[in-house]
Write a structure and sequence with these properties.
The chain contains eight helices and 14 strands. The chain has helices at 15-26, 62-71, 93-104, 157-168, 185-192, 204-216, 253-264, 279-284, and strands at residues 4-8, 34-37, 49-59, 75-83, 108-111, 118-125, 128-136, 175-178, 196-201, 224-226, 236-242, 267-274, 289-296, 304-310. A seven-stranded mixed sheet has the order 2-1-3-7-6-4-5. The two termini are 34 Å apart. The structure holds S-adenosylmethionine.
Length: 311
């Protein structure tokens, strides 16, 4: 069975968020920055995956690894072998260069050091030599950073992409709703991942701007409609709700509670973002909180956004 090595990278303040997303994408508890598995997930889907290696061979003995790779008869035009450093085992620079060269002789084709078409990776992790095809994560979510319409309420796209992954768990068949979609930040990330997602907002102006944002990137603008969260009749598999708070949108505490209660009627699972601890209000609406994490802006501040996963 094919194996993959995923390499995660994030600032310290994002550790808990990365662990939460990992749990939903890989259906396991987060184990650390290097993850060996037979689960195949696109490295570009998550903002935390720096790279993925499709493993050709693994061995405790480097000469054995060379033999295994040779026997596989790989051939590539314009390839390069790189050593991928990791925090678990250190290989001295010159030694790593020599080993990359030795490995390159086990592969047929042509070597190209600048802008190769194919990159083959070698790393020494947990006392095991690992070699495979290297995929560097491409931050596809960045393209939505220049959407024409935005406002101070908008989520940052990294968080929006992560919420979508937590909500979908990579399942493209789910129906997803963002009932308070603002400028459509979450909807855009969902569409970029090929998900079945719709957005609604009570405000005529905001929902219109969100529609224009979708159209700007070539998506169907009609996936965003003006609607009060209390007026939905359809049921979705999952909702992603970034609840309005009384900072930019005038809203009372009672209205917030009533919106959480309204969301309970339209979805089986909810991923909710709040500016303060709303555990009590979520539970009072009849939800069971499965997971919760506080995403701080930097490591050094106390406050941030709460992310709840409930059903
Ligand atoms: C925090 S903002 C969402 C921002 C959004 N996630 C983004 O990235 O642009 C909350 C939104 O909820 C909308 N809203 C307030 N009350 C609502 C209601 N009863 N039904 C639907 N949307 C509502 C507001 O117009 C506002 O755009």
């Amino acid at each position: 069975m094919k194996k993959y090595l995923y390499i995660f990278n994030y600032p310290p303040e994002d550790h808990d968020l990365c662990a939460l997303e990992f749990k939903y994408l890989f259906h396991e508890e987060y184990q650390g920055q290097y993850y060996l598995t037979n689960q195949d997930i696109c490295q570009d889907d998550s903002v935390f995956i720096k790279a993925k290696i499709d493993i050709f061979a693994m061995s405790e003995n480097f000469d054995e690894l060379l033999k295994e790779v040779k026997a596989l008869n790989y051939e590539y035009p314009d390839f390069k072998v790189i050593y991928v450093k990791n925090k678990m085992n250190h290989v001295e620079y010159r030694d790593s260069l020599k080993k990359c060269k030795d490995l390159s002789w086990m592969i047929e084709g042509t070597v190209k050091l600048n802008q190769p078409l194919h990159t083959i990776a070698l790393t020494y992790l947990n006392n095991m030599w690992i070699c495979g095809y290297y995929h560097h994560g491409i931050p596809t979510w960045k393209k939505h950073d220049d959407k024409p319409w935005t406002f101070s309420n908008s989520l940052d796209i990294r968080l929006a992409r992560t919420l979508v992954n937590i909500a979908s768990g990579g399942n493209k068949d789910l129906t997803i709703i963002d009932p308070c979609c603002g400028m459509g930040t979450v909807v855009l990330e969902g569409l970029a991942l090929g998900l079945n997602i719709e957005g609604y907002d009570i405000s005529r102006e905001i929902s219109w701007h969100a529609r224009k944002n979708l159209e700007y990137y070539g998506y169907d603008g009609q996936l965003i409609q003006r609607k009060d969260i209390h007026d939905h009749t359809k049921v979705y598999d999952v909702a992603i709700m970034d609840i309005p708070y009384n900072l930019y949108t005038p809203i009372t505490y009672e209205e917030q509670c009533s919106m959480i209660q309204a969301s309970r009627k339209i979805c089986k699972k909810m991923v909710m973002v709040t500016f303060e601890d709303m555990t009590k209000e979520i539970e009072q609406a009849g939800y069971k909180i499965i997971d919760c994490c506080l995403r701080k802006k930097t490591e050094y501040v106390k406050f941030g956004r709460y992310i709840y996963v409930c059903n």
